[in-house]
Write a structure and sequence with these properties.
The complex is a heterodimer. By secondary structure, chain A is α/β, with parallel strands linked by helices. Chain A has 19 helices and 14 strands. Chain A is 42% helix and 18% strand. The radius of gyration of chain A is 27 Å and the shape is elongated. The chains are: A alpha/beta, B alpha/beta. At the A-B interface, helix 1, helix 3 and helix 5 of A face helix 7 and helix 10 of B.
């Protein structure tokens, strides 16, 4: 039976459709059983299960090359011409759906300049009878899509005619996506006046080759929030992430593995969390300073990556929504009944927590170089941050050192949702190395920081080699605990890889992280090491 | 013009000539290269890279300023007349990475590099050779260009202009059959499932042009 490899297939088709001057982003394919439509994410294209099935066996009768071509061409159109992660603002779900359809049509017209003849193929998928058979407000939206595509009010529907006129006028005025927002808002308001009910949870974009447009908007998922913060940091002066007061620290207790006695010592190591507030839902509630840590205001919630969701029942009334509802009622517009407030926590699909070993040994010079291990770690962070930002992968940066089991200090320099600012870069360049390396506890804390935040968490450890601490005379004890911690993390679904700085004592690192999860980085070959690390990260996320 | 389709058995004797057995005699027979030199014609060696190395050595003196063909078996030296021309053709880096013309031979020639034609020119070629509509010719030229962009990882070579002309001719006979396009454009270049599916995904652009 012939099997088509979806990633390769997509790469080929995109390459075939690409113009010599274009440089489309490299995309990977995810597959989802839940989603009904293609989704464009910062990490690639997420194919709905039905399309993946079509690809899995090209000899089956339901294989539709036309749908697949339209899907890829449409995705390419968005990648080339759409602005991503636009703020939802006060738009309701119906408005977002209408604006998204207008944007779909706009980019499909633009892509015809690149892929000659694709308009006719898009039109072939706009079946008029099918549009009429959907039912409800979706029919109205589908009819609008058909009219826009054919540039003619084929249904002789007043609202579709209005949509067509306004759309063409907006394009003529070269307003782009911004102009469509206004048009979409008016059209959606009309639909509201017509008493159409719109259930966004059941809505699937028509025709089926189109994507779910989640890439256009923020607020729909945490990835978009992250992207917003990244793009925000590029354009305006970023908000400085909130630092813990200097004297304040969060304290955590973690288990430690004793390989000799085969015993897990409960709450054995004390970790002091410094720097940024951990934005994640912490897996282990701190035993002390818990109240100070779980903070007071909405602002802090926002920094922690939480956002407000309006619901139809609850304990806390959302005043803004209640006022909006009242205004809507006065304007005789069907009101949004979700006037109660509920806090939701963002969940990122994937992200990398970089953990820097800032122990005294990092001050050592690398053999044959004037650089210290710490210098090389800082250089590596610069490379990695550039890559993460260009690949839109959320990342966080921490450093650690220890001074006995009672004082493992971990500083969170950057959290997943905070922007990567010049201040942070400078702060990291000023990082000092001191004391020892209790790696196992640091790894467990990293797992806590990623917990409930990431579906695909990864911890990337930058270290010079062997874990050690002044209260551990037994030389195998700490690396065995680290090995155990790595196994624990992997069992919890956290990928762990190591960038071993300098070639000395590499064997211990390989024992802790595994041969295939360790990349050795030497002073004169940092680019090569980075390439290998990025390859592993990419592989892990696809 | 003397044309020689070179292959891996083509030797110097095949080009220059040899003694043959004829009744009770062993007369000398000029090869195509010698005949061209004697008569001042054009000798065209097609796929010259396929010929044996020793066959190409005889070209050295002929293709440089000496313009002489040494025939050691008859102890003759022929001076090529002014209007004698030697033309060779091959696909560089194509048949085998192990095979390439020696630099010393390459540099004796004036080279003309042929690549796939630009889309507009290819459209014109397809339309004029097959008699199809310019819309279909354009769509086929675009398909060819797309397939060539895919070449490299698994797909050895993109669709050639020759194949596009075949496809256009087939479609003019029965425009309703998509499998004709598959037979003309996809199956000859690959049987690898993923690449095949990728090329298949681009076919609707051609089919849309057929119905326009």
């Amino acid at each position: 039976m012939a099997t088509v490899i979806a990633d390769k297939w997509l790469e080929f088709v995109l390459r075939g459709l690409q113009q010599p001057t274009q440089n489309l982003p490299v995309v990977s394919v995810e597959r989802s059983r839940q989603q009904q439509r293609l989704a464009i994410t910062p990490y690639g294209l997420s194919l709905p299960h039905s399309l993946s099935q079509q690809l899995s066996d090209v000899h089956k009768g339901d294989y539709q090359p036309v749908d697949l071509l339209c899907m890829v061409a449409h995705a390419k159109a968005h990648l080339m011409h759409s602005p991503f992660f636009q703020p939802v603002g006060k738009f309701k779900h119906l408005s977002l759906a209408v604006i998204s359809l207008l944007e779909d049509e706009r980019v499909e017209r633009l892509i015809n300049q690149d892929i000659e003849g694709i308009s006719a193929v898009f039109t072939s998928r706009m079946d008029m009878e099918q549009a009429l058979s959907i039912g409800g407000v979706e029919t109205q939206l589908a009819k609008m899509s058909v009219c826009l595509n054919r540039r003619h009010n084929v249904f002789e529907d007043y609202w579709c005619g209005k949509a067509l006129d306004m759309f063409e006028q907006a394009l003529l005025s070269c307003g782009g996506f911004d102009a469509l927002r206004e048009v979409g808002s008016i059209l959606a308001n009309d639909l509201g006046q017509m008493r159409y009910r719109f259930d966004h949870t059941k809505y699937a974009v028509w025709p089926a080759y189109r994507d779910d447009n989640s890439i256009l908007w923020t607020d729909a998922s945490a990835e978009q929030k992250v992207q917003e913060s990244v793009s925000h940091s590029r354009t305006t002066s970023p908000l400085e992430p909130e630092l813990l007061p200097k004297e304040e620290k969060l304290i955590f207790y973690y288990d430690e593995w004793n390989a000799q006695t085969q015993n897990l010592n409960k709450a054995f190591v004390t970790v002091n969390h410094l720097g940024l507030l951990p934005a994640s839902a912490l897996k282990r509630v701190p035993l002390r300073a818990a109240q100070t840590a779980y903070l007071k205001s909405r602002q802090r919630r926002a920094i922690r990556g939480e956002f407000k969701l309006s619901v139809d029942s609850g304990e806390q009334l959302w005043l803004d929504k209640a006022i909006e509802r009242h205004i809507d009622l006065r304007c005789k517009i069907s009101p949004d009944e979700n006037i109660f407030l509920q806090w939701q926590r963002q969940q990122l699909s994937a992200g990398v927590m970089v953990l820097i070993d800032a122990s005294e040994s990092a001050n050592d010079r690398i053999a044959g170089s004037f650089m210290s291990i710490l210098d090389l770690e800082k250089k590596a962070i610069t490379y990695l941050a550039d890559f993460f930002q260009s690949a839109r992968i959320p990342f966080a940066v921490s450093s650690f050192h220890s001074n006995t089991k009672d004082d493992v200090s971990i500083t969170l320099h950057k959290d997943f949702v905070s922007p990567w600012t010049d201040t942070q870069r400078r702060a990291l360049q000023g990082l000092q190395a001191a004391y020892s390396t209790r790696l196992g506890a640091a790894l467990r804390h990293m797992s806590s920081l990623c917990a409930n935040r990431l579906q695909q968490p990864m911890v990337l450890v930058l270290t010079d080699g062997v874990p050690s601490d002044v209260d551990c005379p037994e030389e195998n004890y700490l690396w065995q605990d680290s090995q155990f911690a790595v196994a624990q993390l992997r069992q919890e679904g956290v990928s762990v890889i190591c960038l071993k700085i300098g070639s000395l004592q590499g064997q211990i690192c390989q024992k802790i992280f595994g041969l295939s999860h360790t990349v050795v980085c030497e002073a004169d070959k940092i680019e090569l090491a980075m390439r290998n690390v990025l390859k592993k990260i990419r592989k892990s996320f696809t | 013009m003397w044309t020689v389709a070179c292959n891996e058995d083509t030797s110097a004797s095949d080009l220059v000539g040899r003694y043959i057995l004829k009744g009770n005699e062993t007369p000398w027979i000029d090869g195509p290269l010698t005949q061209a030199v004697r008569q001042g014609g054009i000798c065209y060696l097609d796929e010259v890279i396929e010929a044996r190395q020793e066959a190409l050595v005889v070209l050295n003196a002929l293709a440089d300023h000496r313009r002489q063909l040494f025939i050691d078996k008859t102890n003759e030296v022929l001076l090529a007349p002014a209007h004698f021309m030697l033309v060779v053709s091959y696909n560089p880096g194509y048949q085998s990475v192990m095979r390439d013309l020696k630099e010393s031979i390459k540099q004796r020639f004036v080279a003309v590099r042929f690549n796939y034609p630009a889309i507009e020119l290819e459209q014109h070629i397809i339309a004029s050779e097959s008699g199809c509509t310019s819309t279909l010719a354009r769509a086929l030229a675009n398909f060819g260009a797309s397939s060539r962009k895919m070449a490299g990882s698994g797909l050895f070579e993109g669709v050639s202009t020759r194949m596009l002309i075949h496809a256009a001719k087939l479609m003019s006979q029965d425009a309703g059959r998509q499998n004709l396009l598959e037979a003309a454009l996809i199956d000859p270049v690959t049987d690898e499932p993923t690449i095949r599916a990728s090329l298949l995904a681009l076919l609707p652009l051609v089919i849309a042009a057929v119905h326009m």
